[in-house]
Amino acid sequence: MSDDPFFTVAVAMFAGAIRVSTPFLFVSLGECLTEKSGRINLGLEGTLVFGAMSAYAISYLSGSPWLGVAAAGCSGAVFGALHGFICKLPKVNDIAIGIALMLFGSGLAFFFGKSFIQPTAPRLSAIDFGFLTSNPQMKVALQINPLFFVGLVAALALWWALRNTRFGLVVRMTGDSAATARAMGTSVDLVRFLATTIGGFSAGIGGAFLSLYYPGSWNEGLSSGQGLMAVALVIFSRWNPIACVAAALLFGAAGALGPALQSVGISQGYHFFNAAPHILTLAIMIASTSPKRSLKGAPGELSITK
Amino acid sequence: MTKFTLSRRSLLKSAAAGLVTAPVFGIERAAAAGLTIGIIYVGPRDDYGWNQAHAVAAKALKLVPGVTVVEEENVPETIAVQKTMESMIQLDGAKLIFATSFGYFDPHMVEMAKKFPQVEFRHAIGLWQKDKHPSNAGSYYAYLHQAHYVDGIAAGLSTKTGKLGFIAAKPISSVLSNINAFAMGVRKVNPTATVQVIFTGDWALPVREAEAANALADSGCDVLTCHVDSPKVVVETAEKRGVKSCGHNASQASLAPKGFITGAEYKWETVYKYFADLLAKGQKLPNFERGGYDKDYVQNTAFGAGATEEAKKAAAAAIADLKANKPYVSGPLKDNKGVEVLAAGKVVDNYDVFLETTNYLVEGVVGSMT
């Protein structure tokens, strides 16, 4: 332990960035892909909560946390597929369906999750990089869950695939101009259906991280809006998966600021520090938007930017 | 397995019988019942904490013959609770409402009590005042701070670093009195120890609670406790970090087999049982019901592996004193800004409202309320 308060806060923010960012990362990556294809899925908050519940439940019942992660991904994919399927019906608004699915997902998770609040399920373990340092606080901060790395790799892969592959081209084309995609013989509905399904899968994994690693317990207040914030992160990071990583890390670090400052005795105005992530988002949004041009990188078919 | 067959004829018969008798039974039951009780929870009824403690104990009310209980969970501390109360009164015919969360009281419960003078309202935290609030409202409360004081004594003798952490939801009187009682317990047996407090801002924020527990462990605290709705995350995070913990609300002993010291628990069942007995006799509930160790309204969780022998002994002695209703707060007492809150030589009775109108943090607590 160190007595230097600056060091303590810095370590807490570094550790917080890694611990808290992973669910943000998975949800925003999923949403990034969905939005690139021209749809918005606001239901990912519900998917995240249901993913958290199903991961915990399956881990408890089967004894294998990784099976729980798989279950969370699959249930997330089902929610994504449901959104994708309903939205392809005529005259359906994707935002309204998203809100409906958000409430549906959370409600269903609360319903099935009742009996899993008390039991203690096997949790995911971390990879220990503590040998890199001799500082005890850093040793703890460097216990990193493998899902974090999976998220990083997924972000890189998505970024590369969107730019360099035929798959990426088709997704971007569908997202920028449905008419063009149809003219090219691509099924717009199918592409969006798949993009939303994969997006839901990713958000489900994010939920598994919440209940099986950090904070590592299932209860109904677990997500407290992280799924919604992650959707905002996508706009914030301009539909760029690499920027999503940065945004998620920034959010994680900002979230750790409030508790860390109080732990070293700087406790005046903790409400303000606790709200740091939200204030940060507002500030960056205001600084980076302009009424004179549309958001850079925004898919042309997106119902909020159209 | 028993064989169960149902012929079409018997089905028709019983359905017809049901049609005839159901309304009759309905009327009879309603006449005998006379009392419908509405209970409102701020979170899920099975949260391993505050709401569960109430819900489990409130089952005693359901056993009173003729009493019907309607419950609603996850009701926020907003205008929503007024709507819930109104629908319980208008639609379910509730004549007695138990509102179990702090923020339900003012203005929501007060408004409703004025609007429905024939309905009785009871609030589970001590905010009701005789001369200020409607007479059909009231409060009941168990002095959990007595159990936190015992926690503090055990924790103060189980810490090595002399730094303890307290994760609290909101800086309101019932939370502050628990923090203060914990700190007073700690400093009674370990005068140089400090209690570092972190306010998260709300009753259930699992991610921030985990961050707070990690931050406290990082800054050198080796015992953590909390006052949040569901202490599971804090106790489990403490165990993961290899620091000791004290519980809150209900028993969390099984979550921390290595580091659990003891915990402050409500015994709401004693309170609700007492209420149920009054109702069964057809009596009105008191407007102002209080009690601590002396009335068996609170208890401490059985000691875990984190408690030292010395701690167990001192805590047991403190419990015996509290059971005999011996005062444990006396002057001189200063707040953590150095302002005197209690003059030297003054002794505070355990039932004194001084202990539940806390708006300061005592000396030895590091942190601020704003």
UniProtKB/TrEMBL annotation, chain A:
Protein name as catalogued: ABC transporter permease
GO MF annotation terms: transmembrane transporter activity
Cellular component terms per the entry's GO annotation: plasma membrane
Membrane topology qualifier: Multi-pass membrane protein
Regions crossing the membrane: 6-30, 42-60, 66-86, 95-113, 140-162, 190-212, 243-264
Pfam families given in the database record: BPD_transp_2
Keyword terms: Cell membrane, Membrane, Transmembrane, Transmembrane helix
Localization, UniProt: Cell membrane
InterPro entries referenced in this protein's UniProt entry, alphabetically: ABC_transp_permease (IPR001851)
Main location class: membrane
TrEMBL record, chain B:
Domain of life: Bacteria
InterPro entries listed in its UniProt record: ABC-Purine-Binding, PnrA-like, TAT_signal
Keywords assigned by UniProt, alphabetized: Signal
Domain ABC transporter substrate-binding protein PnrA-like as annotated: residue spans: 36-287
Entry keyword annotation includes Transcription: no
UniProt xrefs under PROSITE patterns: TAT
Alphabetical list of Pfam families matching this protein: Bmp
GO CC annotations on file: plasma membrane
Keyword Hydrolase: no
Protein name (database record): BMP family ABC transporter substrate-binding protein
